[in-house]
Amino acid sequence: MLNIIAWIILGLLAGAIAKAIYPGRQGGGILSTMILGIIGALIGGIIVTLLETGRFQLAAASLSISGVIVAVLGAIVAIFLWNLVANRASY
Questions:
Q1: How far is CA 18 from CA 2, 26, 79, in A?
Q2: Does residue 60 carry a pLDDT above 70?
Q3: DSSP characters over 32-79
Q4: Mean pLDDT score, 38-52
Q5: 9, 11, 52, 87: most buried, per Cβ within 10 A?
Q6: Mean pLDDT calculated for residue range 61-83
Q7: How far apart are the C-alpha atoms of 23 and 66, rounded to whole Å?
Q8: What angle do CA 37, 43, 67 make, to 5 degrees?
Q9: Virtual CA dihedral for 70, 74, 76, 80, nearest 10 degrees?
Q10: Which of 61, 84, 58, 47 lies closest to 15, judged by CA?
Q11: Amino acid 91: pLDDT
Q12: Mean pLDDT, rounded, for 55-73
């Protein structure tokens, strides 16, 4: 149960920071921010694990300073990818 609460806190924190950093308007409420942050933690964790070990492994960032930084970077990547998909769908 504590692990789920940590994921929610990390998701909210990382999603909010990523939305503040990324240029333009992303919209969405607190739930979309939390989901964006959790997805960012997964993306960031996978990328860090790939760079450290050379293996593609499902991992997530932890609730620490370095984990938040990785999750924010992953959330920025998630925003970028979402904007690519959303812009293609509008054509």
A1: 24, 10, 8
A2: no
A3: HHHHHHHHHHHHHHHHHHHHHHSS-------SSHHHHHHHHHHHHHHH
A4: 83
A5: 11
A6: 83
A7: 23
A8: 65
A9: 160
A10: 61
A11: 59
A12: 78
Residue appearing with tokens 């790939």: 50
Encoded tokens for 26: 């992303």
| CB neighbourhood size of 62 (10 A) | 16
Average pLDDT over residues 80-90: 78
Q: Would you give the distance in Å from CA 16 to the centre of its chain?
A: 10
At position 34, the amino acid (one-letter code) is: M
60 vs 65, higher pLDDT? 65
Residue with tokens 């509008």: 90
Residue 56's identity, in one-letter code, is F
